[in-house]
Please model this.
Amino acid sequence: MVDQSRIDTLRAAPVAARKLLIDGKWQEGEGRPGEVTSPIDGTHLTTLESASSNDVDRAVAAARAAFEDGRWSKQPPAARKRVLHAIADRIQAEAVELAVLGIRDNGTEFGMAINAEPGSAAGTFRYYAEALDKVAGEVAPTPENILGLVHHAPVGVVGAIVPWNFPLMIGAWKLAPALALGNSVVLKPAESASLSLLRLAEICLECGLPEGVFNVVTGPGSETGNAIAHHMDIDVLAFTGSGPTGRRLMEASARSNLKRVYLELGGKSPNIIFPDAPNLAQAAKVSAMGIFRNSGQVCVAASRLLVHADIHDEFVAMVQAEAEALRVGDPLDLNNQVGAVHSETQLAHDLSFMDKAVAEGGEIVTGGKRILEETGGTYMAPTIIAGVERDHNVFQNEVFGPVLAVSRFKTEEEAISLANATDFGLSSAVWTSDLSRAHRCVAGIRAGLVHVNTYGGADNTVPLGGVGQSGNGHDKSMHAFDKYADLKAAWIQL
Ligand code: ADP
Model:
């Protein structure tokens, strides 16, 4: 168990200004340094170097050189496995420090961050350490005088651009499988939440990852990210973030070297409650956490609640009670269950949905406002909006905040139709005791992930990816390797 005094000691330590990691050396960038503000109390945390396009060029050149000379890419699998396991061990050993550092710039409540950030990242490094020597090629069924082989060749240089909501978890989802196959990586964290990933980069070096294999370039999306997106020598770009940025990245690929672009974008994930849910009280509790944990700043947040008319009022009251019982506040106070909204910009965006929702006929059942303003931090009350119809703004568009949109349905067909009535398709859930109905919903819901009688917690054994405007490609599981390898065939005359 972690005690409050240890967290308080860690949070009191000043955060040193951070540089870029290029070719194993901490370097200054040409861009204007960025200031980092803590969402916990609005105070200034530290300063980060910004990478210009020249700096990104240097990082990519270092990554390419490392890939070509084989210092990592040509090491035996067992050697790469040892390094990735060592990284996992270090993340685990430093879990509390990493969690607190990350919370100071991103605002996630400690109870969630300790598992979802260092906990998950360590698990991901371990998963791909174990998996990397299980990726075998194929022998093709050729004529007798031919040997046909299919290899999984590492792509070379991987660019990764990640968001601020779970930097370590999402960073590790890209980094670990890419490194496992022998690739080099140039990673850009979100400019407002880079600290835990910069520490991870130090850990990687200390654990024996050769210099130049993993480079970190901090800086704004419009400059540093844009330079990565347009780079002529990055082979694959793996991204998690917003839809508009995802579109820009695809466009940049088309305008540059046609690098493969994998996008994990937002969602508007439906959570369907049938009257025969095995345990409505449990469903209400999990549904509340499915949207309100990390203040709803979760790409797979269960942000649309679809409730059968027969239990609608009763169930919404249960979720309301759960929402109102949540303690929101300082994410580093172990008594709190929900932390801060990441920034003033994000909070203004979340609140901008309220007036429109009401104007369109929705009813704010609870929340709908900023709270704890006196702390200097950015906090929002868990919010439930009932009476939401499929053409409403809050039904169709991702808030990425603690806002639950509730709609009513009468039949299974209507529930599935409502579930599928947005442009997104990331996560979803159905709560029912009817096995056949559960399977019909799994088949009928257009999403990369369908939960049944639970929400969240899907581990590394299953892929995560979206359909529709939630993106393409998959993080986690053996399928993540597809992004970071090319199939190479050999046709050999014997
Ligand atoms: P969010 O709303 O979660 O901040 P963004 O898509 O804006 O989503 O940010 C996700 C990541 O994409 C961040 O690292 C950000 O700096 C980066 N980013 C933003 N704009 C661009 C861009 N034009 N080109 C490349 N990267 C970008």
Q: What stands out?
A: The chain has two domains: 4-265, 270-459. The pocket of adenosine-5'-diphosphate is lined by residues 161-164, 188, 190-191, 221-222, 225-226, 229, 241-242, 245, 248 (CB under 6 Å). The two ends are 63 Å apart (CA to CA).
